[in-house]
Amino acid sequence: MPQRILIVRLSAIGDSILSVPVLNSLRRNFPSAKIGWVIERPSSQLIQGHTALDEMFVISKRTLKSPRELWSLVQRLRQWKPDVTIDLQGLTKSALIAWLSGAKSRIGFHLSPFDGRELSTLLNNRLFRSESKHIVDRGLELLGLLGISDSQVEFDLPETDSDADFAARVLVGKSMTERFAMINVGAGWPSKIWPSSRYASIAQHLGRHWGVPSLVVWSGDQERAAAEVVVEESGGHATLAPATSLCQLRSLIRRACLFVGSDTGPMHLSVAVGTPTIGMIGPMPLERVVPYGAANIGIQRDSLASFNSSDRKKDCRPMLSITVDDVQQACDTVMNGIQFSNAKIA
């Protein structure tokens, strides 16, 4: 039985959130083990304070490029003395950290289009070929190399009193003390952005047909400008959210009756806190990143055959193929309370 287990999942925010079920599975199956996590700062905010985690090693994007920062991290990891590492990212940088930690058992993925890439299969010494498609299921399958066959999916993301108080103040100030929907306009890639005018139509639909106002969230000046368009064109059914931290956003999403957005960190955060989620999936395979769980809907019309990262970040056609009617139908399904399974809407 491993005594000290180190998870290596540095980024992105959404993928880090989808790795939390692995953390919880490890805690359930090895209750006396010490569990650590190497993670980049932006994602670390959402994991900080998780009851299943004993130690967090927070790094910056420049850590692997700075000999001084890297040596400091290596010293900390070797003092912590992990005997097992679990590389959930499957890249050279994550596998290198696992190797430098000094752990004798370094678990990772066999080569596939999205996992086990670059030099990771050389640096990790226990490789697993996953049969599952979704990131959550693939991570849990990886634990089979530790004798774990546990498909239970739990997130249990923490919430601080200050974040809860922030959310309460915002919702009272926006007169959203009853049911409200949340619309997230932003995305990390241009190919994952849906037009503001279409989001405005969704806000109108939710307001007129369901009496549900929408709170439009954003991050950064560009997303704020897009969010303001949604509000302006919503016919009074949408309100602009204030600037939020990721943790404050987490508390706001917890209180929404519905979340609508594309394949981003906030979408997966919505799933993790139990809010019914409609996710529009553009360039990535639907089965890999669909909002996890039966309470959620993933919408994809077209997908990309290319595995090239540059193509996936730039090609907007799959996202733009998703229509307002597609999303309105999904909203109606959720609001009607119908139980359904994740499926491609064609």
What's this entry about, in short?
Helix content is 40%, strand content 15%. It is of the alpha/beta class and 346 residues long.
Characterization of the model:
The protein has 16 helices and twelve strands. It is an alpha/beta fold. The protein folds into two domains: 4-146, Glycogen Phosphorylase B (Rossmann fold, 3-Layer(aba) Sandwich), CATH 3.40.50; 161-335, Glycogen Phosphorylase B (Rossmann fold). The protein starts with a strand and ends in an 11-residue tail after the last helix. Helix 9 packs across helix 10 (221-232). The strands form two sheets. The chain has a six-stranded parallel sheet with strand order 3-2-1-4-5-6, with helices on both faces.
- The number of distinct helices, counting runs of at least 4 residues, comes to 16
Oligomer: single chain
CATH class of the largest domain, please? Alpha Beta
Which CATH architecture of the largest domain is right?
3-Layer(aba) Sandwich
Instruction: Work out the number of β strands.
Output: 12
Structural class: alpha/beta
How many strands, which pairing sense, and closed or not: the largest β-sheet?
A: 6 strands, parallel
Q: Estimate the helix proportion, in percent.
A: 40-55%
Number of discrete domains: 2
User: From the alpha-carbon coordinates, what is the Rg to the nearest angstrom?
Assistant: 20 Å
Shape: globular
Taken as a percent bin, the fraction of beta residues is: 15-25%
Straight-line N-to-C gap: 47 Å
Unreliable spans: 339-346
SSE sequence, one letter per element? EHHEHEHEHEHEHHEHEHEHEHEHEHHH
Mean pLDDT over the residues: 95
CATH topology name of the largest domain, in short, is Rossmann fold
Strands of the biggest beta sheet: in what spatial order?
Answer: 3-2-1-4-5-6
Give me the CATH superfamily of the largest domain. Answer: Glycogen Phosphorylase B
